[in-house]
Amino acid sequence: MHKHLTFIAALAFATAGIAFAAEAAAVKNIVIVHGALADGSSWRKATETLEKRGFNVTIVQEPLTSLDDDVAATKRVLDLQEGPTLLVGHSYGGMVITEAGNNPGVVGLVYVAAFQPDKGESLLSLASSKPAGSMDIKETKDGKYLYLDPGAFAADFAADLPKAESDFLAKSQVFAAKQAFAAKIGEPAWRTKPSWSIIATEDHAINPDLERDMAKRAGSEVTEIKASHAVFASQPEKVAEVIEKAASKTGR
Q: If DSSP codes are grouped into helix, strand and coil, which group holds residue 85?
């Protein structure tokens, strides 16, 4: 009888261990929201790294026509996910995930050299609070969209990428609507969900000190990486490691 009870107890313990392991690895969905001036294709290396580690990665190709449009585009992708999802945003994408992260399927947020706004803040209000330098941003002739001068793209956005890659990013950049940068945030998802922040220490697009201040305010777990604003492309392995760690912690 004693041996029988011991066997049952051991089986129960083993089963509980398996259940805990399954729960810890439960977050397999990663949804990435790219920033302004570069589309989701520049996340390819980081995506491939995450997929090799067993994650299901989807990249939102938001239109950058307005913050509302970009949040809606992100929610459409979130609705396609089965199970809990970790939401990742780069640069302006941080504005988007702060709103879209209120989706009930989102269990955590990862900010990659990103804006991490509080309620009532806009990208413009944050960027002007700690200027990062002299990004050569220009307006389209109709005055509605913004883009980065291709000749300055490498130095301002992707100084640590090979020239061929930065040149391609400059030629394929996605223009952003001015109103998207002026739109104010509602209730930030980081107030109710865990967050992580990657600080690009050589960032010329967002002041690294601003990135640090926003992360501290949100109580985010911080990782600093010596890289340009395009840290996701120049240091894809390190960015993937942070995302994997975040997925593991939210799974527990």
A: strand
pLDDT-derived band of residue 19, with 50, 70 and 90 as boundaries?
A: very low
The pTM score is: 0.89
The architecture in CATH of the region 28-251 reads: 3-Layer(aba) Sandwich (3.40)
CB of 228 closer than 8 Å to CB of 139? no
Distances from the Cα of 53 to the Cα of 18, 78, 93, 221, angstroms: 20, 21, 24, 22
CA dist 243 and 45 (Å) reads: 14
* Amino acid 131: pLDDT: 83
Alpha-carbon gap, residue 140 to 173, rounded angstroms: 13
Domain ranges of the chain: 28-251
What is the number of H-type helices and E-type strands within the chain?
11, 9
Instruction: State the alpha helices, DSSP H only, in the chain.
Output: 2-24, 44-52, 67-78, 93-100, 123-129, 153-157, 163-172, 178-182, 208-218, 231-234, 236-251
